[in-house]
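For consistency, the fold was encoded as tokens, as this record shows:
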Amino acid sequence: MKEMLQELVKKFNEKDDERKEKIKDLKRSILLRFTDNGVYHMYLENARLSDVEEGEIEADIVLETDTKTFRDIVDGKEDALTAYITKKIRIKAKLMDKLLLSDLLK
């Protein structure tokens, strides 16, 4: 799972996307908790994500799901908003951060 997450970080950081302009001044810690495959975290700063690390941290954004749902969202087989509404994915964060995460997962 860590390798998959690191590949997503690499793609995000290399992608030229106008949405990055919205987040260039944000600093956030992000925790990804997979109910079936461990806990990982990273940091968002200057519109770039840090390398993925294993383990729990006190985070601004906490995303909890299983690996299948996460992969389906990443592969476009499932919509992130639908997964959130059906409680397949849980996000603990301020409203603005939830909206940001939803936008970035599109």
About this structure: The domain at 2-104 is CATH 3.30.1050.10 (Nonspecific Lipid-transfer Protein; Chain A). The chain has one domain: 2-104. The radius of gyration is 13 Å. The mean pLDDT is 91.
